[in-house]
Amino acid sequence: MFKGFLQQTFFNNRILDYLICLSIFLIGIIVIQIFKRFLLKRLRKWAKRTATTIDDFLIRMIEKELLPLFYFGAFYVSIQGLTLNPALEKGINVLGLILLTIFGVRFLLAIIVYGLENYWVKKEKDVAKKQGLKGILMTVKVIAWGLAIIILLDNFGIKVSALIAGLGIGGVAIALAAQSILGDLFSYFSIFFDRPFEIGDFIIVGDLLGTVEHIGIKTTRVRSLGGEQLVFSNTDLTNSRVRNYKRMDKRRVVFRLGVTYETGLRELKEIPVVITNIIKGINDTVFDRTHFFSYGDFSLVFEIVYYVIGSDYNKYMDIQQEINLKIKEEFEKHGIEFAYPTQTLYLNKT
Predict the structure, then answer these.
(1) 196 and 329 assigned to the same domain
(2) 158, 149 contact by CB (below 8 A)
């Protein structure tokens, strides 16, 4: 009698078939739970003891992206022994394909994001690059999901060739209408990968100068010395000659000073020696030269050249101030007078 009960048919399937389906599904759930509670738990403890972070990342991805697919996989395998309505079977296949695509794309994007953030940005210890990475990742996500949708449509039997052709024509029209936007986008990629400047760099573009505050997909914002914000399109920056003072290893300094024509020959010969000793005695400077440069209109002109190690402008000004004060002190000791504009009038009595 019990055997006859199992042979009864409902919706083209025996009760025995339903029990077998349920058993397979329950076994699949039990296997997944064993994997989750024992094997995955052990792997998580092992990952915490390692110095790398990639194992922790992979375990998180298995829990977040793969376990839901395992549950659906158990359900899908269990119903293979049933005779299903064609529409229902097609619906389950479509659902499986959609889930596989969604979780697959999410898993792939997670790997890309992890790789860029941990093995590229953090390796170079570049905080500015991490901020600029957002624009790159947004573009990657749009492309990945776009391709996923096209693949889904193709698997659903929708002819995507005409759609792609239409998108191609529409893309050309959009590209022509938005040339400047696309140009700025590609310029953003150029700035991001080539890195002519970064956030925090002091740059000069033409007669405009300031510190880079933000590098966006379309524009880059610079804070000027006057306090106002300068907004440049990325295309303007990549097409311009940008001077980046943040990356200056040393600053070349040239200045001149004049002494009076009444200065004696002995004092004139002492001046280069005095200035040389002053500059060489100051830290973070590299002396280059000091010369009696020329006979000016009202002074004897000396030209001095030296280098300041580093790009800090305040440091350069502090050193120049120290040099100027010591030159003044030494000139007073040697009785050397600085020149200033003077005129001598000769009067003839008639």
Answers:
(1) no
(2) no
| Same domain flag for 46 and 128 | yes
When divided into structural domains, the chain yields a total of 3
Tokens representing 23 are 């058993």
Residues 7 and 149 in one domain: yes
- The CA distance from 160 to 165, in Å, is 8
Q: Which pLDDT value is given to residue 175?
A: 53
pLDDT at 125: 55
Specify the pTM: 0.54
Judge whether 121 and 130 are in contact, CB under 8 Å. yes
* 40-49 vs 54-61: helix crossing angle, rounded to 10: 160
- Burial class, 247, CB count within 10 angstroms (exposed 0-12 / middle 13-18 / buried 19+): middle
Q: How far apart are CA 75 and CA 22, in angstroms?
A: 9
Mapped onto helix, strand or coil, the DSSP state of residue 302 is: strand
Domain extent for 213: 188-247
Assess if residue 57 is contained within a domain.
yes
Q: Give the separation between CA 65 and CA 85, rounded to whole angstroms.
A: 30
Query: Alpha helices of 201-312 — where are they, by DSSP H?
Result: 234-238, 265-280
Do 15 and 143 sit in the same domain of this protein? yes
- The tokens for 266 are 């002995």
Secondary structure of 179-248 in HEC code, one letter for each residue: HHHHHHHHHHHHHHHHCCCCCCCEEEECCEEEEEEEECCCEEEEEECCCCEEEEEHHHHHCCCEEEHHHC
Q: Who has greater pLDDT, 252 or 5?
A: 252
- The CATH number covering residue 288 comes to 3.30.70.100
**Given 197, 231, 247, which residue is the final one in a domain?**
247
Cα–Cα nearest to 213, from 227, 111, 286: 227
The amino acid at 306: Y
Give the number of other CB atoms < 10 A from CB of residue 96: 15
Which domain-ending residue is among 247, 273, 297? 247
Residue partners of 6: CB distance under 8 A and separation at least 6: 14, 15, 16, 19
The total of other beta-carbon atoms located within 10 Å of residue 167's CB is: 14
Question: What is the tens place of the pLDDT at every residue in 208-218?
Answer: 899 999 888 78
